[in-house]
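User: Assemble these into one structure.

Assistant: Restating your components, then the assembled model:
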Amino acid sequence: MSVFDIDITVKRPGRRIALSLQADESVVAITGPSGIGKTSVLDAIAGLLRPLEGRIAVAGRVLFDRASGIDLKPEERGCGYVFQDSRLFPHLTVEQNLTFGLRHAEGEALTTLAECADLLGIAHLLARRPRALSGGETRRIAIGRALLRGPRFLLLDEPLASLDDDRREGILQVIERIRDRFALPMLYVSHNPEEVRRLAGKAVAL
Amino acid sequence: MLSPTEWQIVALSLKVSVVAIACVLPLAFALAWVLARKRFPGMLLLDALVHLPLVLPPVVTGWLLLLSFGPRGPVGRLLNDAFGLAFSFHWTGAALAAAVMALPLMVRAIRLSIEAIDTRLESAARTLGAGPWEAFRRVTLPLAAPGVLAALVLGFARSIGEFGATITFAANIPGETRTLPLGIYTALQVPGGETQVTRLALVSVALSLGALVVSEWLARRGAAGERKGHVL
């Protein structure tokens, strides 16, 4: 049984994006130039975009299968999605953002708020609002929010984009820690070969 | 100080406006949400229908209400038979007229705030395990709150000032449908009624200004809560 068993075609205005991926590695990178549709593929896996056809299974669980009419709702897919634009809720504090999905964590919680805040180095930010945060802090909180939701797998959409080198290294270490600590299946979108080499067991080009 | 009759007018005005706004708010929100988010055939028609009271002469709106909700109107008869609910010549008629006149302003205010919400935040809530209703309750609704607040103030001010539709549909009955504008109008018809006009007009100004001040205070309190993040 593969960790990732994905074969989909996604339709976007004016083009079709196809991804075929069978991987036993728990961290897989999706690479390719910007604008090729990497985010659309992640949206399809998260259930935010319905593929034209195909099948999506992660860790043996079928999330979408056109042939048999399976199409789980986004809230049923158990994914922790770290969006490229973070999408923190502006009306909530950092702590409320982090714990937003806690009530939906499935089974035993992956981590606690305190442990997660410690791991990501964001304990001092809990009372703040998202707009009072720097880019690197925002990204780390988005990662923490996805982890605290108790996901079955993580989708990371260019988590290092538009960060300076110091913060980039900080987030890379965080992702490595998550990989080694929680053994969560991870799909990692990036167009930086160096990151991909360092993090992923396998890479597919779109 | 106000005379007992004047107090009655003020109290009735407040009752009519508060009931009108409270009853019409859920409808205004639903219409605003549909108009902001959904695309369907007949949408232009719905939009036009909602805005009709804004562009029609209020007397015409009142007459249309009389035709449909009056004792012989189809809706009026139905409601009377089913719930014993009478509108014309009754304070509930004044409230209905105020609600209909306030609706377009409220829909506009709420719609703007819903359109300003990034739907990708709702998608984010869904990936965090929230169903559509929970995402609405925990993300959409709080982010639309400033629009709802603006709608309440605008709607209240509009209801307090409602004249044409009310007098046409619910008539000018002391203690039943004689709200502030109708009271002022009536006093103006009476020789020597100027002092009453002045007092009622001052109450009108106070109520409208009061609504503005309260909304400003609420808005600032909300903004201050958000600013706390910067200070810490």
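Chain B touches chain A at residues 118, 120-121, 123-131, 138-139, 142-143, 226, 228-230, 232 (CB under 8 Å).
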